[in-house]
């Protein structure tokens, strides 16, 4: 099947013009609308004509031809553009389709998505078929192109070959290279990564950084090498330094970094009042985090924190569209744009009561519609996890002298193991637990101890990880095996076991990494798992991110990876994985 090269074919463009002439009727007329006009930075009155998925006219005139046109009286609403989330990780237990549906019904109709899981799990033909399928849903789905796997994997040269990365960069649904979690390699002289950045710039695509704690000189170097934006500011000063060097800055409010309100207050103290180079993101938080909304939640927080109302809307609409060079399609209610429109009951209440996405109602008077069709995931290589190997007590042999100490939900430091780890159970009087990373094909393993995860988690198994490998953790080897066996039985997921019984579980039937369920159902499962872990001594803010970042080498100081226990700061393997 050939890709459609342009957003609208010539025939469609002629039809759009014919609507203006009255030769064709608009499919929808939004009459007497008060809408946010970002050019004039004010609320204005207009009649908005829509034909199919496009706004074809915004102004005072009314169409002369209304045959079969849906006319909507908008006198009781305030209209704003559909929101754009610029930094989405659409694989945090949910899947891209379920997240798009949930976000769309809350006004976030355009998503710019991480491609990491697709790059690691699928060949590019399957991945690009999925991207094509995502174009058929009401939400608009754009993508990134990762330049590194964010961990130490065995087959990095295959998954991130020049041919694969170049094909992703060239895909017209891809808007940026990044995020650059591997930027230390770039500074150390990785010319292949620099070449990919150069290619992205040649294609007029953006390059997003991942630069937590970067000094002003480091920020300057990375700007010189091609970075355009960064979402890792943790203070108003961080934002200031990035703006000073020419970056577009994305303010973050996520489950592990809820920084946005504090940053806005600090910017006010620094007399920074221009928000044109700022965007906002939830940075791929777990399902329960989104109970209060997606970008609508960010806009509300920004307004409450002191951002002027129009700037708050702009940070989730036109600012994002301008940054990604898609303002001709998104971010405004103007002639020629895609018909993504939110209907609000009040100017300062950004959660919509009705939502148009590509000219279709996905929410009407707070009721969901049927315009989001289901997806057949098996067509794209996603099925229940099938493991043809068994976990035995022989696998659960622990002798490594070095472990990991969990400082917070995601930061891990090295830890010297000083007690006998040859036993079958660890006392609940301390916070040490057995920890294992196992190849999903059963070929290798690495066993150590983790300190600071919990005091009473007996058996825990997860196929959800950044590499797709199996994480096993707990105080009891027998309960770890019980959790693993249940995880295997349900086709992948996260399982908590105790005294041989299953306490709670989150089935993840799409390659053991994502759920096929709606986000609302997944939120309940996640909350139940979190509550059970907290009851058993988990003291940090987000166990899902602890799992995800266990292998992620973009964070200090030590990580458990498919190649072994890895020292992030010195970039070397301390203890390699063991073949079974």
Automatic annotation (TrEMBL):
Q: Could you confirm whether the keyword Repressor appears in this record?
A: no
Name all Amidohydrolase-related domain ranges. Answer: 78-361
Could you tell me what reaction this enzyme catalyses?
adenine + H2O + H(+) = hypoxanthine + NH4(+)
Q: Which UniProt keywords apply?
A: Hydrolase
Q: Write down a Pfam family by its short name.
A: Amidohydro_1
Q: Which family does it belong to?
A: Belongs to the metallo-dependent hydrolases superfamily. Adenine deaminase family.
UniProt name for this protein: adenine deaminase
């Amino acid at each position: 099947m050939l890709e459609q090269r342009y957003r609208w074919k010539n025939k469609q463009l002629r039809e759009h013009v014919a609507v203006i002439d009255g030769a064709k009727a608009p499919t929808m007329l939004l009459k007497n609308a008060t809408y946010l006009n970002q050019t004039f930075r004010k609320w204005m009155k207009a009649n908005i004509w829509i034909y199919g998925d496009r706004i074809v006219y915004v102004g005072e005139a009314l169409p002369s031809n209304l045959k079969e046109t849906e006319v909507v009286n908008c006198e009781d609403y305030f209209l704003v553009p559909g929101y754009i989330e610029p930094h989405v990780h659409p694989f945090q237990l949910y899947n891209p389709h379920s997240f798009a549906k949930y976000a769309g019904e809350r006004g976030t109709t355009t998503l710019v998505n991480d491609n990491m899981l697709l790059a690691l799990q699928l060949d590019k033909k399957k991945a690009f078929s999925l991207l094509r399928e995502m174009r058929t849903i009401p939400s608009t789905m754009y993508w990134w192109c990762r330049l590194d796997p964010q961990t130490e994997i065995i087959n990095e040269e295959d998954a991130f070959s020049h041919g694969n990365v170049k094909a992703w960069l060239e895909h017209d649904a891809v808007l940026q290279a990044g995020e650059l979690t591997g930027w230390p390699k770039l500074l150390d002289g990785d010319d292949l990564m620099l070449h990919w950045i150069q290619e992205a710039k040649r294609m007029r695509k953006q390059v997003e950084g991942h630069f937590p704690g970067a000094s002003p000189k480091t920020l300057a170097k990375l700007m010189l090498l091609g970075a355009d934006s960064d979402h890792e500011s943790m203070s108003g000063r961080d934002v200031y330094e990035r703006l000073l060097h020419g970056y577009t800055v994305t303010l973050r409010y996520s489950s592990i970094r809820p920084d946005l309100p504090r940053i806005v207050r600090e910017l006010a103290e620094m007399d920074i009042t221009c928000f044109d180079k700022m965007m906002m993101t939830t940075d791929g938080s777990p399902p329960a985090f989104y109970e209060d909304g997606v970008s609508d939640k960010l806009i509300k927080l920004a307004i409450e924190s002191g951002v002027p109302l129009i700037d708050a809307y702009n940070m989730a609409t036109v600012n994002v569209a301008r940054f990604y060079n898609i303002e001709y399609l998104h971010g405004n209610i103007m002639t020629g744009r895609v018909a993504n429109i939110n209907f609000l009951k009040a100017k300062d209440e950004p959660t919509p009561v009705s939502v148009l996405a590509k000219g279709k109602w996905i929410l009407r008077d707070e009721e969901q519609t049927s315009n989001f069709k289901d997806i057949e995931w098996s067509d794209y290589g996603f099925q229940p996890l099938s493991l043809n190997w068994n976990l035995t007590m022989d696998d659960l042999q622990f002798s490594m002298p070095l472990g990991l100490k969990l400082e917070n939900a995601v930061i891990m430091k090295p830890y010297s193991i000083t007690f006998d780890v040859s036993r079958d159970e660890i006392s609940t009087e301390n916070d040490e637990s057995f920890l294992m990373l196992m190849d999903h094909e059963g070929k290798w393993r690495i066993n150590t101890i983790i300190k600071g995860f919990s005091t009473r988690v007996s058996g825990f198994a997860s196929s959800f990880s950044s590499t797709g490998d199996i994480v096993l953790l707990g105080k009891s080897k027998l309960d770890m095996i019980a959790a693993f066996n249940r995880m295997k039985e349900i086709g992948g997921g996260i399982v908590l076991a105790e005294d041989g019984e299953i306490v709670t579980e989150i089935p993840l039937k799409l390659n053991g990494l994502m759920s096929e369920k709606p986000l609302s159902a997944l939120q309940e499962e996640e909350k139940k798992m979190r509550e059970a872990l907290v009851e058993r001594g988990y003291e940090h803010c987000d166990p899902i991110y602890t799992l995800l970042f266990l292998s992620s080498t973009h964070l200090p100081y030590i990580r458990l990876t498919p190649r072994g226990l890895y020292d992030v700061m010195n970039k070397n393997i301390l203890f390699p994985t063991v073949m079974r």
